[in-house]
Design a protein that fits this description.
- By secondary structure, the protein is α+β, with helices and mostly antiparallel strands.
- It is about 25% helix and about 25% strand.
- It has helices at about 40-45, 135-155, 180-190, 205-210, 220-225; strands at about 35, 50, 55, 55-70, 75-80, 85-90, 105-115, 120-130, 200, 230-235, 240.
- A 5-stranded mixed barrel has the order 4-5-6-8-7. A 3-stranded antiparallel β-sheet has the order 9-11-10. The chain has a two-stranded antiparallel ribbon with strand order 2-3.
- Strand 4 (about 55-70) and strand 5 form a beta hairpin.
- Helix 3 (about 180-190) crosses helix 5.
- The termini are far apart.
- The model is unreliable at about 1-30 and about 160-175 (pLDDT under 50).
Length: about 240
Amino acid sequence: MNMDISMDANSGGFLNDTSSVSGEKNLRRAQNIVPVMIGQIIRSSGDFQIWEIPVRMLTFIGILRKVNESTTKITYEIEDETGTITTLRWLEVNKSTPEPTLEINTYVRIYGLLRDQNGVKQVFIVRILPLEDLNELTNHLLEVTYATLKAEQIFKANNTHTVSVNVDDNSMFNNDCTGMSTEQAIVFKIIQAENETECGIERNDIKARVPERILHDVDQIIHFLTSEGHIYTTRTDDHFKAT
């Protein structure tokens, strides 16, 4: 297998704006290499998707923990802060180029294709390289965040029938809101309504949904709900889900 894998400097190498989504919803594809964390892969069920966009070609960075070599293949156990996964590379016959030097307990970057083998997620390696600069690790984390946000943007653009929260509906105030003021219950219910999404709801989106009369109190209410354990942060300190 001889594939030249390169990241597109203009697009970040993933989720091309103009061609990521086309035709039927279930035919959407991420067009380029998608940066991910290992935990995203192993927590996925069925085909790996980011905001319902199927992903085949992916890249991630992790620590090489174990290597097993046979006559036909090499398996690598790769770990990052979110999980551990087994990756697989088939050995090429009569290959003229030398293998990269990889050391146990050092960072490597993987480019590969995701496969499900008897219910176990594996990555078939297209290319594996030692990490030469730790700045790549920081850059990768930023790319993962960008890819997730871009996929979310595409998802929302193609699913405009969002569910609105009627903050004046008396049905909002049930047993989940015991001990809360009316204003606190409103914010809590807005957050709770987005619990099924991957990262919950962002602070500015909460502010966009609350009645104007409590807009200036939202940050204080969020602090109260967090301190009392009613909500918790997810991707960042500004993304929330209800407990």
